[in-house]
Design goal:
Layout: H1 14-34, H2 40-44, H3 47-80, H4 86-94, H5 101-112, H6 119-124, H7 133-159, H8 162-169, H9 174-185, H10 187-202, H11 206-211, H12 222-232, H13 234-260
Helix pairs in contact: 1-13, 3-7, 3-10, 3-12, 5-7, 7-10, 8-9, 10-13, 12-13
Length: about 260
């Protein structure tokens, strides 16, 4: 007979722990209780809902690729090098994680808008980014990039450099070490960061509506569709909200699975 496992926790700790769990779970249960299950399929398959979901999946996927292209080198530099101002750079890179998304949207607007820092020069070339699908991708990338960077940087620091050093002493070039040793070693952390970035991009609202607007089929992603449906069709808003909750649960499962492989 197995002896009970000693937790070492005082009994009173369970009271706020249960209260905290209830604080998170009760709103989700309330949401599920409010769903019109008889009309659920029709609510989430309306023309506007399908267009918003398709746009969200496409733009979130593109922004995740952009996060990988930009974030992987950034995380490697932050984890493997030392230079003046590194801590400041790291803080600035992670700033979108704590910055109100609407502020990020305004910053992007004054960078890529028609009168923005870069936008006015792009306008001369006939390139307009603000209030377009490209603006959705930029907004999603801006808010989700730090999630990949912080996840991968932590994994790189935990993995250390001993295998990289061994490969280098055996004559492998830096690019070969990175491709054949470093990246395969931190692949679970990279996958975890990419999944988190995708989830954050999928749920982005504030920066998107500020920088890209809400044009059906062009910039109206699923969170924006939920916000608009809340005023005209609350049942549709609830049903679409449940879709995002399900996606979030799947993402959490994928992240836990990828971390469990480390």
């Amino acid at each position: 007979m197995r002896s009970p496992q000693y937790s070492g926790l005082p009994a009173w700790v369970y009271v706020p722990a249960v209260a905290g769990a209830a604080f998170v779970l009760l709103p989700l249960l309330a949401l599920m209780a409010r769903v019109d299950w008889s009309q659920f399929i029709s609510l989430i398959t309306s023309e506007s809902s399908v267009a918003a979901l398709r746009l969200s999946l496409i733009t979130a996927s593109i922004s995740t690729v952009a996060c990988l292209v930009l974030g992987v080198p950034m995380a490697i530099v932050l984890a493997r090098t030392r230079f003046a101002g590194q801590s400041v750079l790291r803080s600035l890179v992670l700033l979108p994680m704590v910055l109100p998304p609407v502020v990020g949207g305004i910053a992007l607007l004054y960078t890529f808008g028609r009168r923005g820092l870069l936008g006015e020069h792009l306008e001369v070339l006939g390139i307009q980014i603000a209030f377009s699908t490209a603006a959705v991708v930029l907004a999603q990338t801006f808010v989700s990039l730090p999630f990949l960077v912080v996840s991968l940087e932590g994994t790189l620091r935990t993995a250390g450099q001993r295998y990289d050093i061994v490969a280098a002493t055996l004559g492998a070039k830096p690019t070969t070490v990175l491709r054949r040793v470093t990246l395969p070693l931190v692949l679970p952390g990279l996958a975890s960061g990419a999944i988190l970035a995708f989830a954050r991009a999928l749920g982005e609202f504030g920066a998107t509506i500020t920088f890209a607007g809400s044009l059906q089929g062009v910039t109206r992603t699923l969170p924006l569709e939920i916000y608009l449906q809340r005023e005209v069709d609350p049942d549709a808003a609830v049903a679409l909200s449940l879709v995002l909750v399900v996606v979030a649960v799947l993402v959490i499962g994928l992240v836990r699975g990828s971390r469990g492989q480390m």
